[in-house]
Specification:
single chain, alpha+beta, Aminopeptidase, seven-stranded mixed beta sheet, 7 helices, 7 strands
Length: 211
């Protein structure tokens, strides 16, 4: 398959919520499982509380093959507030889950778009889909007048970090989190930045955009 077979859409298509949640759980289930598990319940929670307009999806032959979420204007792809968590998991089990979710919360600084995760179907990796999504994230940031894109990458995902570096992201700091290794599967988080320029707004993905 050529990269050109993939097209990027700037929202989550109606009916694709479960697929997007599935991809996110495949990529981040170890990290999210402590807060939203078990897996079936967590995927259902994510699908129910998506913010469709904060997701970019890569479509191959009309099917969702990858997704990137971003946080801007106080909202990210994965929604659901405290009340939703307590309603889904109950007060006793929900309160500690809220504390774990708070550890994962990332708020943009002024002039900043925060990328909230990228996930590509295992059978479609190596085809350039991750790069298509990253370029579209940067294009969105440019169109929104942001000065930079920020993301965090965990120490057990060197493949993702290499992808980010190929697309202009630079590590700015690493926070050691040994207390999360047993709980969420990682012991350090590296923050990376990519400056946004005016040219980025016109840098459309090679596969084009699906509407």
């Amino acid at each position: 398959m050529k990269n050109a077979a993939a097209a990027v859409r700037r929202d989550v298509p109606p009916g694709a919520e479960s697929r997007v949640a599935e991809l996110y759980w495949e990529a981040f289930g170890r990290k999210l499982g402590s807060a939203l598990g078990p897996a079936a319940k967590g995927r259902a929670f994510l699908a129910e509380h998506l913010h469709h307009d904060r997701g970019l999806v890569a479509l191959v032959d009309g099917a969702v093959a990858g997704v990137a979420g971003y946080r801007l204007g106080g909202r990210g792809l994965m929604g659901g507030g405290a009340g939703d968590v307590l309603s889904a998991y109950g007060a006793v089990r929900g309160l500690p889950r809220l504390a774990l979710l708070a550890l994962l919360e990332r708020r943009p600084a002024a002039g900043e778009l925060v990328m909230d995760g990228i996930a590509v179907d295992a059978g479609r990796r190596g085809l350039g889909i991750g790069g298509l999504l990253l370029r579209e994230v940067v294009a969105v940031a440019a169109e929104q007048g942001c000065r930079r894109v920020r993301l965090d990458v965990i120490d057990v995902n060197p493949r993702a970090r290499a992808l980010y570096e190929r697309h202009g992201f630079v590590a700015v700091r690493t926070e050691r989190t040994p207390f999360l290794r047993d709980l969420m599967g990682f012991g350090a988080v590296t923050t990376m930045h990519r400056p946004v320029t005016g040219a980025d707004a016109a840098d459309a993905p090679e596969g084009g955009r699906a509407r």
